[in-house]
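User: Before I run my own analysis I want an independent prediction to cross-check against. Here's the chain; please return only the structure tokens and, at the end, one sentence I can use as a sanity check.
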Amino acid sequence: MGARPSRRRLPVDPPVALDVLPPELLVQVLSHVPPRALVTRCRPVCRAWRDVVDGPTVWLLQLARDRSAEGRAFYALAQRCPPSDDDEEELPLCALARYCLRAPLGRNLIFNSCGEQGFRGWEVEHGGNGWAVEKNLTLVPGAPSQTCFVTSFEWCFKRQLVDLVMEGVWQELLDSAQIEICVADCRWGARENCGCIYRLRVRLLDMYENEVVKFSASPNPVLQWTERSCRQASFQDVCRCISTTAFNKH
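Assistant: Structure tokens:
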């Protein structure tokens, strides 16, 4: 019988650890990680990774990968209006990181707009029977929650202050660009046995809470016994040359 030919195993190269990569390659690799995982899982690994996540380059690379028309337009905008480092001592993440995490443009900036968390996030003034959160009488397709704010008799107010900087929009973007913001009181209505009149007011404030721009929708009546569905009221407009932070809490 002939001898079995020997099988020589080729030496296997040891795996390359990420911590030995040059900084520019580490940035490229980490830029493929989803934003929330970058902050919660990658940032605590070591000082080198923290410096990458805290810097703007990895976030600019993430923005550059959005090849939609809106993505390309915003990437050009971010390069033209880069955020300053003035807020880094007060805020835990850089402005580009907050933008990628919060994605503030094109979404409703109102928190708990359907009352799915009761009145959390709202300042409420009750009049008459006051505000209540009830289940929708008819299904609302695509709603984040099948609940809505309802009221009856006399006046009721609810108010929410939105800090655009904390939502991910940085100061230079507010100062120099035309960006579109959207707020929507998603679900509201009247009890079936009592009508109401609803009005949406939106005010754009500077950091001292001075009014810069205001919007008021026409009164929207709901007649008694006529409607069982809830409604949506929204405001969407372009911010132009605002010299201070809109809706700033501080």
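Sanity check: Residues 21 and 27 are 9 Å apart (CA to CA).
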